[in-house]
């Protein structure tokens, strides 16, 4: 499997010109995915994202079964780390890439990815909990790479992977499931085309799992979603050619027509 490139070659085509089919998973093992038939049923998936709180064995299974890059962030329970390795030491899922606090470009698809792990602080027992300021500090650490991408490639990133949602965008009122205010700032500043998150369990399938905030389609992937990441930027016009018409807003999933109303600015 090709390693992700933190410093993309500027001569490479950095703008994917076609839809990329992604499998996104979070929070719960789904037997429709954790099955020997997934290779056939998901043969057109090009990249896998985990939005947290899934055990390493599930992520490693997906990496093996689909033979595609798997990127993940840790959830508040850090299930990814719970499997004990030799001498009881914890270790990360093999063959998968931890996106937490990083900005990377996937070499196979050209997608620029970033990740923010964890949930808001709500107890003393869970390992991956953050204050607003800690998330903001993580964001500031990522900013130079994001700004470089915007200058070099015309966009800071394509897909933001998080465990928690932004505040008031598909979150819940209880403390553990309250969204991060800092993520609203991230979306306003860096304008990814998509944010994929987990943490908020949607049991009522009539509830919308896609919302819009600023320029971003925010998708709750619990327990899994197949997301067609539409063409991410218009092609560079040929010299002398008329400027291309702006792209119609693509839908991340068939249910994107249920996009929620944008909440007030932070
Ligand atoms: Fe969670």
Tags for this model:
alpha/beta, single chain, 13 strands, 266 residues
What is this entry, summarized?
The chain is an alpha/beta fold and 266 residues long.
CATH fold topology: Purple Acid Phosphatase, chain A, domain 2
The CATH class assignment is Alpha Beta
Please give the order of strands in the largest beta sheet: 5-6-9-10-12-11
Taking pLDDT < 50 over at least 5 consecutive residues as the criterion, the unreliable ranges are: 234-266
Small-molecule components bound: fe (ii) ion
Can you give a write-up of this model?
With 266 residues, the protein is an alpha/beta fold. It has one domain: Purple Acid Phosphatase, chain A, domain 2 (4-Layer Sandwich). 18% of the residues lie in helices and 19% in strands. The strands form three sheets. Strands 5-6-9-10-12-11 form a six-stranded mixed sheet. A five-stranded mixed sheet has the order 4-3-2-1-13, with helices on one face. A two-stranded parallel sheet has the order 7-8. β5 and β6 (112-116) form a beta hairpin. Residues 234-266 have low confidence and may be disordered. Bound molecules: fe (ii) ion.
List the helices and strands and how they pair.
Layout: E1 20-25, H1 38-41, E2 47-50, H2 56-66, E3 70-72, E4 97-98, E5 103-105, E6 112-116, E7 119-120, E8 129-130, H3 132-153, E9 159-162, H4 181-190, E10 194-197, E11 210-213, E12 216-220, E13 224-229
Bound molecules: fe (ii) ion.
């Amino acid at each position: 499997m090709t390693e992700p490139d933190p410093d993309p070659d500027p001569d490479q085509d950095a703008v994917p010109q076609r839809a990329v089919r992604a499998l996104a998973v979070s929070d719960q093992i789904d037997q429709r995915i954790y099955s020997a038939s997934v290779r056939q049923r998901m043969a057109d998936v090009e990249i896998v994202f985990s939005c947290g709180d899934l055990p390493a064995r599930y992520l490693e299974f997906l990496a093996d079964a689909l033979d595609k890059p798997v990127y993940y962030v840790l959830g508040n329970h850090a299930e990814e780390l719970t499997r004990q390795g030799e001498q009881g030491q914890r270790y990360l899922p093999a063959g998968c890439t931890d996106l937490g606090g990083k900005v990377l470009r996937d070499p196979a698809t050209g997608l620029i990815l970033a990740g923010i792990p964890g949930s808001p602080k709500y107890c003393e027992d869970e390992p991956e909990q953050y204050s607003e300021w800690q998330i903001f500090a993580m964001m500031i650490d990522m900013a130079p790479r994001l700004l470089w991408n915007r200058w070099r490639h015309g966009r800071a990133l394509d897909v933001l992977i998080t465990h928690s949602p932004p505040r008031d965008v598909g979150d819940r009122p209880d403390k553990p499931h309250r969204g991060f205010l800092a993520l609203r700032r991230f979306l306003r500043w860096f304008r990814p085309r998509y944010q994929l998150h987990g943490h908020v369990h949607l049991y009522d399938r009539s509830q919308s799992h896609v919302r819009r905030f600023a320029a971003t389609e925010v998708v709750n992937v619990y327990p899994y979603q197949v997301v067609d990441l539409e063409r991410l930027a218009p092609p560079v016009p040929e010299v002398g050619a008329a400027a291309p018409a702006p792209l119609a807003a693509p839908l991340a999933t068939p249910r994107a027509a249920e996009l929620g109303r944008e909440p007030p600015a932070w």
